[in-house]
Amino acid sequence: MSVIKKNAPGTSELLMGNEAIARGALEAGVQFAAAYPGNPSSEIIGTLAQVAREMEIYVEWSVNEKVAIEAAASASFSGLRAISAMKQNGVNVASDFILNLNLSGVGSGGLVLVAADDPAALSSTNEEDSRFIAKLGDLPLLEPATFQEAKDMTKWAFELSESINSLVIIRSVSRISHARGNVVLGELPQEKRTARYDTSKIFIPVAAPLRHLALHLKQGKVRERYESSLFNWYVGPDNPELLMITSGSGWFYSLEAVNTLNLKDRVGILKIGTTWPLPSKLLAKHMAKVKRVLFVEEVDPFLENNVKELAAEWSPEVGSWTFYGKSSGHVHPFGEINPDLIINAVSKVMDKPYSPREKGYGQKATEMTKALVPNRDLGFCAGCPHRATFWAIKSALKLDGRGGFVTGDIGCYSLGLGPAGFFQLKTMHAMGSGAGLATGFGQLHKFGFDQPVLSVCGDSTFYHAAIPALINGVYNKSNFVMVVLDNSATAMTGFQPHAGTGETATGSPAAIVDIDKLCSALGIRVETCDPFDLRDTTERILDLINDKGGVRVLISRRKCALVKAKEEKAAYKVYVDPEKCLGESCGCARLCTRIFKCPGLIWNKEKGKSQMDEAICTGCGLCADICPESAIIREEN
User: Fold this and answer.
1) Which residues of 406-430 are buried (b: 16+ CB within 10 A; e: fewer)?
2) pLDDT tens digit string along 392-445?
3) Residue 625 belongs to what domain range?
4) Are 241 and 126 part of one and the same domain?
5) For the CA atoms of the chain, what is the radius of gyration?
């Protein structure tokens, strides 16, 4: 039984942060959930999808984040509590709707948006701080610092949303979303609301200035509630020498720094969970006792700058402070924060020397790591069809000889910018931007441009954001080739289904939106290939880039190796014949292990030959096609 649906109030369970958020939504009586998968947010809706049928809630993977929040808003307009979740990049996609929804207000059902940020861009193209959307839209913002708080805060967010008729934003980060901790469960409600839209109401942001004024009045009410919120707390002496003001993941790091440096009697920590609008009275109370303040937060100085704005108003009466944080350089405004960073910051401010390890420890650790852990480059999985597609693209562009190149975006295939994709990807910005850029490149022939341009996008990305760019290219008669890397999964974020997989988020059968037919309906040339047929794929690409008939589409279709491995056994048994492998004497410059770089192929230094790593090889047999000496053997299973 899933722990998430366990109705045992008072019991403690070990939950991932995203699971705790999902549980909080269930305890709030959520009945509608919609999202587009994106790490680190994916498990929130994924967790709800697992229990959707039994708990009689609706859960969907939407085609993109804007549609997801719009769909969730419709449930709120009809009286149901609804939740949407997305990563920071997705907030950009949804922002157009969010910044109108703030003016129209939500319905009698609470609406909560969870924005999961990715400091250090662990699985993203940026490390954008999504909190600014709350200030931009005058929307309440909450930031959990613990796993218990992630659950409790989510539950309370629905109550706040309904009380002020507004969207409420919860901001998480990777280390909250993906770490685990003990969470005490609350009660699951038994009552279900009936959806009904009250036709006497309209949700249109008319008279925007007046509605903007109403938003500011709401902010005043929210601030008053925040002043006494249990999500804000202080630990430390009554009159500290230094006040640390922190939020979210910064709470644990701040606490560890104070304890490690043994400064509990000299340094106080004010943890703010209600980060917009700020509880100004609470802040003024604690800041009046100190003259030095250190801010600890990820990523941008959102809390820091907002507190400084308040301090500027208070300074005529209270005086001035010395502030430490992002602007002073004590906490960097990029990447993740960590215990060492915060310990060093506090150490410098308090002039208390700190040396965590003996001199030379780091060098010893590096040397031991190199000896014990084999070096593995970031690359595609063994048997990944994207490796084959990029190999074919590289070959075709080389044969063409006109300096053609590839534009791309976000997905597993983003690895195409490095050695895994043979350095073929030349641009990578947002989902669908590869196609959007290609439409522009495809118009430059008027200015002497004669290089072939290919854009690549995954099947999930195609539905998410590439279709408008494709239509734009058709409409404006742009000259480029779109390569759709169809591996039948939203593979990068956890294999969630999408509009082309034939099933919904809860596993129910669904209509397949056929990429081939959709593209053909636009009146353009559409080709389909199996990337593991390298010769055919290369020839098709070469033919398509030499066809100057506007937009052309190549669908490179083969199921993700990880998905395929769950469904059927390997097609081949693959091994390297040591008699045929000539190693460094081959003349191929170790093409298989140095260039092709499938992790299933490894270089045996002692023998001076390539060999197969049987634990990793998926048996796709593709490598047999690229060996010039036919030393790689594939036998049908």
Assistant:
1) bbbbbbbbbbbbeebbbebbebbeb
2) 999 999 999 999 999 998 888 888 888 888 888 899 898 888 999 999 999 999
3) 569-636
4) no
5) 28
